[in-house]
Amino acid sequence: MNIIFCKGHFAGPISGADELIVNNTIQLKKAGHNPSVLLLYRPLVDDQYLLRLQRAGISVQWITSSVIVDSLNIYCKIARRLMETFPASRQLIRKNAHKMALAQASRHLDACRAYFEKSQPDIVHVVSPNASAMVMIRAAYVAGVPVLYQELGIPFHPPGYESQYEQFTSVLSACTEVAALSPSLKQMCYEKLPSLNSLSVLPLLIEEGCNQIPLSKSSEQITFGFAARFEYMKGPLILLRAFAKVVREFPNVRLKMAGTGFQLKQCTAEAKQLGIEGYVTFTGLYTGVQQRCEFMKGIDLFVLPSLSEGTPTTIVEAMAHGIPAIVTNVGGIPDMITAEEGIIIPPEDSTALIDAMIRLTVNHELRWQMSRAATARYERLFSMQAVLPIIVNNYQRIVASHYSCGSGVQLNNRIPTHPWEMGKPEYVCIS
Length: 431
Description:
Elements: E1 2-7, H1 16-30, E2 34-41, H2 48-55, E3 59-64, H3 66-85, H4 90-106, H5 109-119, E4 123-127, H6 131-142, E5 147-150, H7 162-168, E6 177-180, H8 183-192, E7 199-201, E8 222-227, H9 236-249, E9 253-258, H10 264-273, E10 280-284, H11 288-297, E11 301-304, H12 313-320, E12 325-328, H13 333-336, E13 342-345, H14 350-362, H15 364-381, H16 384-404
Parallel strand pairs: 1-2, 1-4, 2-3, 4-5, 5-6, 6-7, 8-9, 8-11, 9-10, 11-12, 12-13
């Protein structure tokens, strides 16, 4: 199949949407399909996602020059500083920023449409609910190409972006189908977006490497790992403060934190202030399979105390390496982890986080059992063998439903082969 993944621009250095595009295109290409990527704005030549795609032989094209991207980046930096200085103005700044982004992106509607008409893809797969996505969905619809929009989180979330998402919903009727990342997220989409034509579940797919590392039963030193953007919603400061209390009782524990972001400097300063800088290592951003494997080899437990999530790629990566996880009960995470593979705690509950960290520090047998269970759950839910057939089957079904609608036929032919399947989506032809 000829699949074009569409996005406004790469949003690195860490982006779940960009990871999804990279991982899916690489695996689809290995399976004999013809995936490519279309961006509205030109990426930087050293962007990690661009480089990974190019190394894998994936075609990456863009509509506009990099000058516009530079201008948008400057505007974003200015807007961010204004919001930090004047918190009460955040909603107004975000609203104006979205209007500006939509006006800029809309200038390229015809160019996007012409690209789709020339490329003649079987399907367009769009991620990220922003202004660029709105334009690319409209362009594909006008070009007569079936569109799959994949929601990577919870509609109308996080707080502060409700008005932007409200505008984004105006283009969802042009999508042949909308997919969520897990059953819980699918249900949230049903509740928040009742007018959708159809909904399905497409789980995450990761680029596989040195998975299934046997977890040692040794108790000499336990290393916790965190891998995410250093920002408020990921909870890095919550983790640091909890770890500081754990290390006072168990000096044999360590913490490795991978990633980058706005709170990185604050986190390094916090570690020093808490007196735990000798126990915490900030490893920087890992990219690609090899660096991910090296990070995962160096930890015994994965911790992600997020306040809001979809289904984080890093949890799948940890499970693939047989690493138990301590995670929060938000978004689609409860679909990913059960009590057999880790411990789920309420968000912003430091006491529960500390208790979970201590429990898995001292209970080596439980940690080993969870490691085995994590590997098994990964194989069942997230391995290439489990997910790739679902993705391809969805594409084929969406294409069939799109063209059958022209003759007034309504389709409901989904083949449930994944444990997460919850019934068959119903299709309504778009007039």
